[in-house]
Amino acid sequence: MDSRPTTLHPKVPVDQRSDGSGVSKIDPSDPAAPQYLMLARMRSPVTLRELMIKPIRTGYIGQDRPIDPKELPPSAAQLYPQISVSEIFVPSPAGPVRCQVFADSRAAPSQPMMLYVHGGGFTVGQSEDTAYIASRVAAENGMVVVGVNYRLAPEWPFPAGLDDCIAVLRWMREHGSEIGGDSSWVVAAGDSSGGNFAAAMPLKARDDGVTPPEAVIPLCPITDFFFEEYASFERLGPLGIVYDTAFIGFIRGAYAVHHKNWTHPHVSPARGDLRGYPPTLIISGTADPLIDDNRAFAQKLRKCGNERVEHFVRDAMPHGYYFFPGLFKEGDEAFAAIARFLRKSLPPNSSA
């Protein structure tokens, strides 16, 4: 897997094309090849999918709008100096998956583990973007947190990114002790599209013969790709600031590609068989277009017999309100909810 960062900004991995299955190719023997080749000469890249992803990635961090360092929130390293960050490469059938490991350098070995999946609409971002979340969870809960850098759409559509997450989960089960973790206890967590991966992992793991995570913590997740069926999405999506209808429509096409995939339980876990699903904490805000999606997912989990489902919601909070340290008291409250949930879920000998 090509995980080289772009030269435009070290946090936006633009060049992930390699020989990915999501890259369109022109077959010279195709009867329509003359038109395709003409379009290729008229515009670069030739496919609209590639044309649209470039401004999304270059605008994700906003390189053209320099920020005064004084305006930036404290970094994870400043806030949690006891957390060491190392890099590992986990083998997978598609090639090595780059991961970052966040761990308390003073902690005893055999800590419970968290597999954390960054968001970014399946198309942008990497584990460095969620260093604050990973470091805070590791520091406050005595956990080893593994941030996975999965392959991005549209070059690598479903199921590539989820396959990478499962490869990392499998590795943590078999080799977690090598990073100071307890392989018998892994929680799957993630924000936004990463929350979708976290929510899908118990179902995917079960189908692939991998031991599912012991708990799931999706933050403002997408759990159902039929966005338009939810009143909150129709009300808040069109003029959304964090993301809007246009963006989420694009990422649905980039990641899921085919309409038939929208109902696939590994794409829309809310539509899967949720019997036996692990204990779950969902973090949401009422200003997020996905709030009704999240409520419906929690309700379905309960209807399927899950007695350990918690839905933490804060009024007027947008998508990702937990992302920046010190910005909202509600963000701190979300991390406190995570800590309470983990205290009830972690093994008795945990240091949390």
Short description:
The protein has 10 helices and 8 strands. With 352 residues, it is of the alpha/beta class.
Keywords:
2 domains, 8-stranded mixed beta sheet, about 350 residues, disordered N terminus, alpha/beta, 10 helices, single chain, 8 strands, Rossmann fold
Task: Give an account of the 3D structure.
Helices cover 34% and strands 16% of the residues. With 352 residues, the chain is an alpha/beta fold. It has two domains: 33-71, no CATH class; 80-345, Rossmann fold (3-Layer(aba) Sandwich), CATH 3.40.50.1820. An eight-stranded mixed sheet has the order 1-2-4-3-5-6-7-8, with helices on both faces. Strand 7, helix 9 and strand 8 (309-314) form a beta-alpha-beta unit. The longest helix is centred in the C-terminal third of the chain and has 17 residues, at 329-345.
Distance between the termini: 35 Å
With strands numbered from the N-terminus, the spatial order across the biggest sheet is 1-2-4-3-5-6-7-8
Number of domains: 2
* The CATH homology group name of the largest domain: Alpha/Beta hydrolase fold, catalytic domain
Give the ordered list of helices and strands.
Answer: HHHEEEHEHEHEHHEHEH
Could you say what the CATH topology of the largest domain is called? Rossmann fold
**CATH architecture descriptor text of the largest domain:** 3-Layer(aba) Sandwich
Structural class: alpha/beta
Architecture blueprint of SSEs:
Layout: H1 33-42, H2 48-61, H3 76-79, E1 83-90, E2 97-104, E3 111-117, H4 131-141, E4 144-148, H5 160-175, E5 181-191, H6 193-208, E6 215-219, H7 231-236, H8 245-255, E7 280-285, H9 291-303, E8 309-314, H10 329-345
Parallel strand pairs: 3-4, 3-5, 5-6, 6-7, 7-8
Antiparallel strand pairs: 1-2, 2-4
